[in-house]
Amino acid sequence: MMNTTPIPELYVSPESAAKLKTEAARLLSHDLTHRQICDLELLMNGGFSPLKGFLGEADYNSVVEHMRLADGSLWPMPVTLDVTEGFAAKVEPGQDIALRDAEGVILAIMSVTDKWTPDKAREAKNVFGADDLAHPAVNYLHHTAGKVYLGGPVTGLQQPVHYDFKGRRDTPNELRAYFRKMGWRKVVAFQTRNPLHRAHQELTFRAAKEAQANLLIHPVVGMTKPGDVDHFTRVRCYEAVLDKYPPATTHMSLLNLAMRMAGPREAVWHGLIRKNHGCTHFIVGRDHAGPGKNSQGKDFYGPYDAQEMFQKHQDEIGIEMVPFKQMVYVQERAQYFPADEIEEGMTVLDISGTELRRRLREGLEIPDWFSFPEVVTELRRTSPPRSRQGFTVFFTGLSGSGKSTIANALMVKLMEMGGRPVTLLDGDVVRKHLSSELGFSKEHRDINIKRIGYVASEITKNGGIAICAPIAPYTATRRAVREMIEQYGAFVEVHVATSVEECERRDRKGLYKLAREGKIKEFTGISDPYEAPEKPEVRVETVSVTPDDCAHQVMLKLESLGLFG
Ligand code: PPS
Known about the structure:
Blueprint: H1 14-24, E1 28-31, H2 34-44, E2 53-54, H3 57-66, E3 81-83, H4 85-88, E4 96-100, E5 106-111, E6 114-116, H5 120-128, H6 136-143, E7 148-156, H7 172-182, E8 187-192, H8 198-211, E9 214-219, H9 231-242, E10 250-252, H10 263-276, E11 281-284, H11 305-317, E12 320-323, E13 327-330, E14 335-338, E15 348-349, H12 353-361, H13 373-382, E16 391-396, H14 403-417, E17 422-426, H15 427-433, H16 442-461, E18 465-469, H17 475-486, E19 490-496, H18 500-506, H19 511-516, E20 538-540, H20 547-560
Parallel strand pairs: 1-4, 8-9, 8-11, 9-10, 11-12, 16-18, 16-19, 17-18, 19-20
Antiparallel strand pairs: 2-7, 3-7, 4-5, 5-7, 6-7, 13-14, 13-15
The structure holds 3'-phosphate-adenosine-5'-phosphate sulfate (PPS).
3'-phosphate-adenosine-5'-phosphate sulfate (PPS) binds near residues 399, 428, 472 and 520.
InterPro entries: APS, APS_kinase_dom, ATP-Sase_PUA-like_dom, P-loop_NTPase, PUA-like_sf, Rossmann-like_a/b/a_fold, Sulf_AdTrans/APS_kinase, Sulfurylase_cat_dom
GO molecular function, one term: ATP binding
GO cellular component, one term: cytoplasm
């Protein structure tokens, strides 16, 4: 049965908070990342109970190795405060630091007890199953998270501020109070990071019936898998579906969790979080919190691994699992059934997430048996077909390879076609206007490319075409730019594959001569590296092909990607 006593929070009283805030202003400050703000909110409001702060080293090691805190209690996910080496050098255990949000507001004080450099490869293998960058959390661990971890208890001064869907957000204690007030004794929680379609609604209906419980739709709005539908659109979709449930049986509340897509471990974590929010039952479906395919094209986890792991720890989690097979539509019955309850000879229909995205992208029909018209309308509003989205063409190649000439030809062709505004971010031009203070060290080149990527992502988001033409010699930086842009539209990488010998023979700007003489240092291809892209969308060769033809090859690629409608 439901536990109705309030869960301990880490907040101090408003009077103490006001006093502590003044004192905290003098402390060393850490600016929290988006993910850390999500973690902090759930630490402070008891969503991550029994944690009292960011994990210390002993707890971290124990969680990574055994899925348990050092005291033996079940906790599957390292909730750590990662910082840069530079910041870590200024902090010693025993020191208090202020934790600030993106606007500089102090949310909490952390009493640092531990500082250590984690073995990230071990964390990746044990927690996520493989040290494989195709896993979004492993990629985050290696490319976004700082090198050093700080641990220690947290004193909460205020909740992170949310300006969106305020009325739909509840702390664990607010939800517990709501269930108490409504007299709900059993509540089954449904975790989701996707829009709800008919299959999900059917599944939640059945789960509530099986458990004889009320239903909590508890979608994650903090961080989900890169590429997911943004939470604003999803919440509008959820609101539309909520009308389809019998009133007073179902509640919807938004959870500001930063997911890690850790499959089985994540399912256990989700269970603990829902227990803290007062729920008695939890739905675990097929491939719960699955990260997709690994770099070998295989699934990271088996489809029902999460259910197995949950089952093993169910008593300790303190919440009952309602397991579900995938729900599929049976045409003859005009109804949804779990995949393992289908009679032989029946016609089973299903539309995968990938197929749905393709249909949205290409403006194709989405049948009524699959989703609700209101949901489809919402999704179409945010995901117009590719031919109406912005995109980025990103040229990369050596200095003097012909990037600018081809990029210019492409720009003119696109402008002739019309329909979308076009911006050319040429290497030289960017260096003059956007990056005039930068040189050519790895660090400066990376800053330069990330600036270009940022501008291109804004253009893409707003429906325009960005053509970029820097050298961009590093694979990892180009990958980061791709990730930034692909949230909003297509990213088409074009490798202008002119060899260094040919570039030097042409030496259009006379720079290769100076580089050979050592008068220009760190010159790409001569005294600095160039990592050629392995799988660009287009690779052009400029010795026997004219710039006009190269630009035409790019146009054909854009056409084949459905970008012209
Ligand atoms: S990077 O690495 O992407 O930031 O470089 P990028 O901004 O595209 O470089 C723009 C132009 O700078 C000139 N230049 C050099 N290139 C490479 N290495 C060194 N050390 C260097 N110094 C100056 C060069 O003309 C680049 O222009 P393009 O259009 O590529 O020829």
